[in-house]
Amino acid sequence: MSAVRPPWQEGHFVGGHLVLDLTNTVFSRAQPVDEGELLKTSSDVLTWCVSSGLFDEIPVVPTNGLVQDVQTVREQAWAVLDAVACGAAPPPEPLGALLERAGAGVRTGHVHVDGTADWALPGAIPSALALMAVQALFTLPRDRLRACGRCGWLFLDSSRGGRRRWCSMSTCGNREKASRHRVAG
């Protein structure tokens, strides 16, 4: 992973996969998305892309519609992958939209199937993220895909026993343990 750039911190990258980290760019899934939105500006999107390792340095890109398009892809990816994490089938509408955007990006040459793209072209970033979301759906181990029991962030459970419950023990895990301790107290 590349060096994390402000406003991003290591704690924003706990998903174990770039697409899961993208879905986690909402402070908490227990609140309305607009209240916890972390991708508010094109600068937020571009610094997230560098911090996540999508590209090494911020390229010159067209920013018209970038934030809304990335937010849309993020929400579609979250709907699909959260359903899988909950043991359900991916909902057809957001999955179809991801497939459509990814396919359009490949057809126009904005995105390549290896995940690289001509970042200077309009729509390349959202198309690349959509392609990665589709690839994640078909390649991530479904039995290890989880949603945090407190904030709803998605993550790959890489623990030995496959029993991880929190996005991060240092945030949601500790808060939940403290809450249980107070109740038992």
Structure report:
Helices cover 46% and strands 3% of the residues. It is mainly alpha-helical and 185 residues long. A hairpin with a 6-residue loop joins strand 1 and strand 2 (154-156). The longest helix has 20 residues, at 66-85. The protein is globular, with a radius of gyration of 17 Å.
* Relative helix content: 40-55%
Question: How many distinct folded domains?
Answer: 1
Number of helical runs? 6
Largest sheet: 2 strands, antiparallel
CATH H-level superfamily title: Jann2411-like domain
CATH architecture descriptor name: Orthogonal Bundle
Distance between the termini: 41 Å
- Average of the residue pLDDT scores: 90
The level-1 CATH class: Mainly Alpha
Q: Strand fraction band?
A: under 5%
Q: Outline, from the CA principal axes?
A: globular
**SSE order in H/E notation?**
HHHHHEEH
The radius of gyration is 17 Å
Q: Any low-confidence stretches, pLDDT <50, length ≥5?
A: none
Helix- and strand-based class? mainly alpha
According to DSSP, the number of beta strands is 2
Q: How are the strands ordered across the major sheet? A: 1-2
CATH topology: Jann2411-like fold
